[in-house]
């Protein structure tokens, strides 16, 4: 248990990659756009949903690399170094987006 599988899981692996590459980021973008709306005071439930989205993106990327023979966006085998880079960039960019939304709110 805890070992990577020998071949990627077809549909599940594809869904994981779609989520961390596109779906989760689109959800995060829309949440930040909604955060600009002045009807939402800080903190709001949208702030929490943004945080949960970032956490799920990180978790899905980890599972994809560790257990499903994840690949980079270029189709090369991904490593834990790729995971660390992805996580760092995601946290920095999402934090900046969230901060800009708070300022514009």
What descriptive keywords fit this protein?
105 residues, single chain, mainly alpha, elongated
**Beta fraction:** under 5%
The geometry reads as elongated
Mean pLDDT over the residues: 87
Distance between termini? 47 Å
Question: Which percent bin holds the helix content?
Answer: over 70%
Give Rg in angstroms.
16 Å
Report the oligomer: single chain
Would you tell me the structural class of the helices and strands?
mainly alpha
Uncertain residue segments: none
Please count the helical segments.
Answer: 3
Biggest sheet, in brief? Answer: none
Order of helices and strands: HHH
- Number of domain units: 1
Report the count of strand segments: 0
What features would you describe in this structure?
The chain is mainly alpha-helical and 105 residues long. It has one domain (10-36, 43-104). It is built from three helices and no strands. The radius of gyration is 16 Å and the shape is elongated. The protein starts with 9 loop residues before the first helix and ends with a helix.
List the helices and strands and how they pair.
Layout lengths: L9 H26 L9 H23 L12 H25 L1
Quick structural gist:
The protein is mainly α.
